């Protein structure tokens, strides 16, 4: 099999994507799989004629939001991970939240703020509806980029002034829910989605921010997570439910906040980081898989039939 690894891409998540691509290619060399590495930011799609299928380690805009997946579908090239519809729905937070709620998952109260319209919600009403602390984040972006906690009207106006200059000034304002950061990895084995050991990420910030995610010294992984068996069972069931409801394929990571009241759904990442030190790798290590074993299992999830998928 001639495998094309498509990595890199655009935006602040590019370094992490490149690292994942580098590690995946090293694993493929160890596995004896012939690969070609492509940078999504410089991709000439005619070059893909030489490959049989694609393994994606792209994140963020154009790589994780369904656009690259759509291009590969048009070229009839099988690829790893979810298709166009699931990728787009998971990436756009309001869609993912709506599907999660329809599946019975608990989500923080939220509303969409479109700064392109020039109409801001009244801060007092926003805090009255969502709580004394409001968590704002881009409606379509990853890795907690641009996320902040607002605690006052002044915070809100300062944030709105700076956020209005973003390339896509479309945001979700949500009830801030403190608690444990728990991730559930899912891999399809023989076509059946299987939940991996749960991972808890500990850090010393108010929330799992972009700075924390990109600074290894400021976080610690616990896998398996230190939670009760009943909580573990519940989180795995919820993760598998939203994975199915979104129509995900191959593998994904589902993130939750767990506190004394209940698990709260945060998001589905259809192309989680795949470096040797990333979340999915940590979950594999808890099962005594080495990194090459994990990558081999992920490659096996690629559907090579070239049949239509939404």
TrEMBL record:
What's an example GO cellular component term for this entry? cytoplasm
Reaction(s) this enzyme catalyzes, per UniProt: 2 D-alanine + ATP = D-alanyl-D-alanine + ADP + phosphate + H(+)
Domain ATP-grasp as annotated: residue spans: 97-300
The compartments listed are: Cytoplasm
- The EC number of this protein is 6.3.2.4
Q: Which cofactor does it need?
A: Mn(2+); Mg(2+)
Q: Which Pfam family, an example, fits this chain?
A: Dala_Dala_lig_N
Top EC category: ligase
InterPro entries in the record: ATP-grasp, ATP_grasp_subdomain_1, D-Ala_lig_Van_CS, Dala_Dala_lig_C, Dala_Dala_lig_N, PreATP-grasp_dom_sf
Q: What does this protein do?
A: Cell wall formation.
Q: What protein name is recorded for this chain?
A: D-alanine--D-alanine ligase
Q: What is the lineage of its organism?
A: Bacteria, Pseudomonadati, Pseudomonadota, Betaproteobacteria, Burkholderiales
């Amino acid at each position: 099999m001639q495998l094309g690894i498509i990595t890199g891409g655009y935006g602040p998540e590019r370094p992490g994507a490149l690292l994942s691509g580098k590690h995946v290619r090293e694993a493929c060399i160890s596995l004896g799989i012939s690969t070609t590495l492509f940078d999504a930011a410089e991709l000439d799609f005619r070059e893909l004629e030489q490959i049989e299928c694609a393994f994606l380690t792209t994140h963020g805009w154009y790589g994780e939001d369904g656009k690259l997946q759509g291009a590969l579908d048009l070229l009839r090239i099988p690829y790893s991970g979810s298709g166009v519809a699931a990728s787009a729905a998971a990436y756009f937070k309001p869609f993912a939240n709506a599907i999660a709620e329809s599946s019975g998952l608990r989500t923080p109260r939220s509303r969409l703020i479109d700064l392109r319209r020039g109409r801001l919600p009244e801060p007092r009403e926003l805090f009255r509806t969502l709580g004394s602390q409001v968590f704002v984040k881009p409606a379509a972006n990853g890795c907690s980029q641009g996320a902040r906690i607002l605690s006052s009207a002044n915070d809100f106006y300062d944030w709105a002034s700076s956020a209005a200059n973003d390339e896509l000034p479309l945001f979700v304002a949500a009830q801030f829910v403190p608690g444990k950061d728990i991730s559930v990895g899912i891999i399809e084995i023989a076509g059946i989605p299987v939940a991996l050991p749960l991972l808890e990420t500990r850090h010393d910030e108010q929330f799992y921010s972009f700075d924390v995610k990109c600074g290894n010294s400021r976080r610690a992984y616990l896998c398996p997570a230190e939670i009760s068996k009943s909580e573990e069972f519940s989180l795995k069931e919820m993760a598998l439910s939203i994975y199915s409801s979104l129509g995900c394929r191959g593998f994904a990571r589902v993130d939750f906040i767990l506190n004394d009241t209940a698990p709260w759904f945060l998001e589905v990442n259809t192309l989680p980081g795949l470096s040797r030190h990333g979340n999915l790798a940590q979950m594999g290590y808890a099962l005594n898989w080495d990194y090459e074993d994990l990558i081999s299992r992920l490659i096996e999830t690629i559907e090579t039939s070239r049949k239509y998928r939404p």
